[in-house]
User: Which sequence fits this backbone?
């Protein structure tokens, strides 16, 4: 039995990580803000320590006695992004976790990242080996996640045991409902389509992945990963599609007539206001692509990662939302 320190434990990925760790018999210590919705975590047996990822002392205090860490805490790509706040959470927060792990002698840190800043245009190159793009997006989310990624791999190069995991677009059920349906969640977007409230979304190829699969892959990276490697926790290659296409597939499966339209990226300022600078930057980068044309990642071979097919994941989402009364039965 291992005591694992988890950040972002109330989030879509983090709460699933906590649930899976508890289910297999590990003990979990979570850093949570005093205002967080923690009832589900407490009920499953997570030890809660109040504090803030932005404060190094809080992170160190919460991590005391833990043998490893899974760091999922992050600010995501909302329509309004304050660089100072994103730096404090995404960049400095990661540094605080790595510092605490080094000081306390943890055996490994798994840091959740993103794949949006990689140059995956070269044919036959896996995302796990792709270089960082020469001209990465200048939005706060991408910039601060890139800084966190660079720090994590600099630590690995210097001898600290660190791996990074890079999910696609995460959706699906989670123990902490309020956070799983937060404004920046793809669950919120998909629910909007089911309710007939979402009419259009900016077009780019999306690698959809179920939240439980991301949690499973993160724990597998903790158990079987190799320090310094990065692991792509994405869905099945055949399930890459735009947000609108996924929404329409979901609505069809749920027996709902509503449909969502694709919107091509442009320099129209209304797009950034509607979808946020991160989504616009991704759409501009991936404009014209039907989907990723790259080599298969090593994640499956190294970790035994086998993601859920999209249709199966969407059925889980429909059932979960109906159980919660979020969409009509």
Assistant:
């Amino acid at each position: 039995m291992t005591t694992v320190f988890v950040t972002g434990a109330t989030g879509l990925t983090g709460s699933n990580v906590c649930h899976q760790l508890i289910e297999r018999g590990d003990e979990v210590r979570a850093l949570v803000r005093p205002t967080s919705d923690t009832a589900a975590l407490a009920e499953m047996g997570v030890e809660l320590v109040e504090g803030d990822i932005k404060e190094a002392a809080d992170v160190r205090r919460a991590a005391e006695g833990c043998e490893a860490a899974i760091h999922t805490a992050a600010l995501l790509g909302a329509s309004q992004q304050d660089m100072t706040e994103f730096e404090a959470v995404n960049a400095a927060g990661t540094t605080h976790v790595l510092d605490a792990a080094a000081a306390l002698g943890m055996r490994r840190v798994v840091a959740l990242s993103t794949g949006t800043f990689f140059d995956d245009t070269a044919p036959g190159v896996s995302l796990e080996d792709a270089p960082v793009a020469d001209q990465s997006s200048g939005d706060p989310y991408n910039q601060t996640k890139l800084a966190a990624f660079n720090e994590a791999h600099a630590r690995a190069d210097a001898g600290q045991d660190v791996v990074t995991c890079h999910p696609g677009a995460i959706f699906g059920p989670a123990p902490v409902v309020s956070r799983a349906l937060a404004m920046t969640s793809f669950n919120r977007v998909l629910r909007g389509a089911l309710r007939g409230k979402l009419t259009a979304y900016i077009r780019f190829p999306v690698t959809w992945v179920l939240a439980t699969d991301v949690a499973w892959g993160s724990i597998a990276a903790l158990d079987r990963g190799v320090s310094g490697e990065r692991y792509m926790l994405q869905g099945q290659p055949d399930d890459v599609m735009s947000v609108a296409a996924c929404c329409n597939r979901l609505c069809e499966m749920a027996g709902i007539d509503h449909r969502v339209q694709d919107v091509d990226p442009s320099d129209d300022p209304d797009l950034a206001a509607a979808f946020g600078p991160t989504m616009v930057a991704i759409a501009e980068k991936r404009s014209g692509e039907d989907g990723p044309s790259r080599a298969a990642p090593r994640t499956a071979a190294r970790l035994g990662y086998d993601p859920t097919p999209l249709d199966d994941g969407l059925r889980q989402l429909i059932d979960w939302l109906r159980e919660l009364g979020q969409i009509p039965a």
